[in-house]
């Protein structure tokens, strides 16, 4: 009985293959025939969220024009049941074409069909056409073979963990996008967006004719060091047939660390590292090694389930608010163990003296100058020299010792500049604990 049933089922089964690309709608029609000598109402049973019957005749017509399909479009062919399953009425022996659309927005990282020698992965699911009593008169097996998709642009955002990233991105003028229609009637088209992650709020705002359009994103960040990856498809047609651009996004969740500091002065702080169940050899890496020192600065052993301090020294070169990224990496497996976002709020030190000098522009040799500094203390002191522009200024000596009340001459060497203009160079004079004693400002005019 089972084998007869299986053979009968195979006799009414057809297969259609869809080569699915992220965001692109794949349109096809299925010829459904009523094999009986009496009329029937046929229910189309589709149990896959990415495959749907096209019910709107305008959408059906749009896809037929895109695919240059010559078959007719029938108005109001479908009736929706209470459970929203489409039904079609068939006269005896009548054949109609049922329009389908397959469209996926879920980005599958395992699409490996582009790799040489990889056998294509595919998904198979049935569509059943049933008369009353649930008896099938036809079965369509849809075979989906995922294809790799193009990425037009990649965005990376670094954000404090467990917070919402809210971002507005301005879209380029639509006519500059590859694949945009030429000479479109009615001026600029409306833009539409869809996101590969249903939990992300992604919408576009039309600001009126002639105004640029913005994409608004609201993404929930996970715990550090999680990296969330998703895609946004951008369309210029209301039926979302094929995206004109696909954007890839990475959201790096980092532990936030607020640091209040002074430009040119070393601020010290420490981070508590917690060991994982197994011991690991780790090393800290930073986005701004000239402004952030780490100790230990090489690879070190993080004991299993233990606790260890990582010491930081922050010396910003300029005032203002900015971010520095710090990663702790397993040097053997190259895994990210921890990630921090240092949010610097940096004050300008008090300028105690200002100088103005003129230097020739256009290369050539550098220039030597001298300035004096008086030790204001009655006892000998050790001083360290720093500048915000080591590319333009070097010291003859990076440190000096001055006796009580002694006037010390600091030798300066200015590097040649290729272009004319003005630069403000700061000279930080710090004590033995790296606290700022005084800051001089040298305004250099290259002419």
TrEMBL record:
Q: Which GO terms describe its cellular component?
A: ciliary basal body; ciliary base; ciliary transition zone; non-motile cilium
Boundaries of each NPHP4 Ig-like domain copy? 15-148, 155-252, 264-347, 352-447
The record's InterPro entries line, in alphabetical order, gives: Ig_NPHP4_1st (IPR058687), Ig_NPHP4_2nd (IPR058688), Ig_NPHP4_3rd (IPR058686), Ig_NPHP4_4th (IPR058685), NPHP4 (IPR029775)
One GO biological-process annotation of the entry reads: negative regulation of canonical Wnt signaling pathway
Query: Could you tell me the superkingdom of the organism this chain comes from?
Result: Eukaryota
Q: Which Pfam families match?
A: Ig_NPH4_3rd (PF26015), Ig_NPHP4_1st (PF26190), Ig_NPHP4_2nd (PF26189), Ig_NPHP4_4th (PF26187)
Name this protein carries in UniProt: Nephrocystin-4
Originating species: Buteo japonicus
